[in-house]
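ESCALATION

Customer reports they have been waiting on this structure for their group meeting. Please prioritize. Original submission:
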Amino acid sequence: MSRKKTSGRITRVTAIAIVTGTCLVGATGCQVSMNGQTLPSPYYLQDDVQYFPAGPEFKLSREAAALKAARAQEKLSRN
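Update from on-call: job pushed to the front of the queue and completed.
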């Protein structure tokens, strides 16, 4: 083979490899860090937003109310 044909073949194979690699990377997505957030894919803007409403500040309010009622009941039964 002549040097020109081999050089043309290497150039063509290299171009095909670069295009294929670019397509594979673009199709798979990538993890990105923006403003301190780790975003899992380029489609994060199309994801549905989960909303968790604010709960009570004191998480054990029912237990505290039950203890208060038990103490009051105990105080009444002692008298």
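Sent to customer with the following note: Residues 1-45 form one domain.
Escalation resolved.
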